[in-house]
Specification:
By secondary structure, the chain is of the alpha/beta class. The chain has 9 helices and 7 strands; from the N terminus they run E-H-E-H-E-H-E-H-E-H-H-E-H-H-H-E. It has a 7-stranded parallel β-sheet, with helices on both faces. The structure holds NADP nicotinamide-adenine-dinucleotide phosphate. NADP nicotinamide-adenine-dinucleotide phosphate (NAP) binds next to helix 1.
Amino acid sequence: MSRPLEGKVALVTGASRGIGRAVAQRLAADGALVAVHFGRNQSAATETVSAITAAGGSAFAIGSDLSAKNGVKVLFSALDEELKARNGSTKLDILVNNAAVAPFVNFEGTTEEVFDEIYTVNVKSVFFATQEAVKRIRDGGRIVNLTSAVVRTPVLDAAAYSILKAPIDNLTKVLGQVLGERSITVNAVAPGVIETDMSAAFARDPAMAEAVKGKQALKRIGQPEDIADVVGFLAGPEGRWVTGQVIEASGGSGLTF
Ligand SMILES: NC(=O)c1ccc[n+]([C@@H]2O[C@H](COP(=O)([O-])OP(=O)(O)OC[C@H]3O[C@@H](n4cnc5c(N)ncnc54)[C@H](OP(=O)(O)O)[C@@H]3O)[C@@H](O)[C@H]2O)c1
């Protein structure tokens, strides 16, 4: 079995569940040591780590609430401590910015508290986690951001979430340019509807699921592994010439009017 990420160290935020868990499993299957970050669900993160180790991979869990003021600081001091103990170094190769919240609230219903939480977890913590990660990432490393197809086709019932994914696309372009000198690639993956807790209202409701499939060229509901494989490509050696790009993986959602 090929292990193109042997010897690499990856951090996946929000890897306790959903897409992040599948990404962590994919990177570990490719040979990376994976830091499985979680927010509130330590037991779910432990399940991710157990699944990885059962499959012959290496991983450990680290927790930090990215809605908290010191969330990024807590994350990186836990990461540094664990990596120093395991590797004698705090060096990283791959960062996947995946953790996010997506409250279903329309424009009128969005309170300042809801907006602030989405902004803090989905935008501000991504910016500063990346700033911290860049100090530790070796030249030739990889950054992959999870954005969303909602930047192209916003969901009215998740108004602030839709608006606040757009900065991730721009961050990807800015950092693609800035980090190119160090041969670090920076890309974003934009999923459509993927069956996770976040999209349960769409993906797990039979009528909504039919409506979703009706908008897609490919007639099934996307699964976390559909996204993990795209992230795996970008994070691996074959993604070396792709940077600053937003790659939509949505089964061809809304291709035509
Ligand atoms: N599912 C979709 O249809 C879809 C579509 C487009 C884009 N996306 C994007 O894909 C990414 C993953 O989504 P998903 O569907 O896998 O979501 P999910 O199943 O809801 O999982 C969210 C993950 O983020 C973590 N997280 C949430 N709030 C946090 C906080 N305050 N601090 C730290 N971690 C926190 C959660 O950790 P805990 O459980 O430990 O709290 C969990 O691991 C997100 O960036 C999302 O915007 C998803």
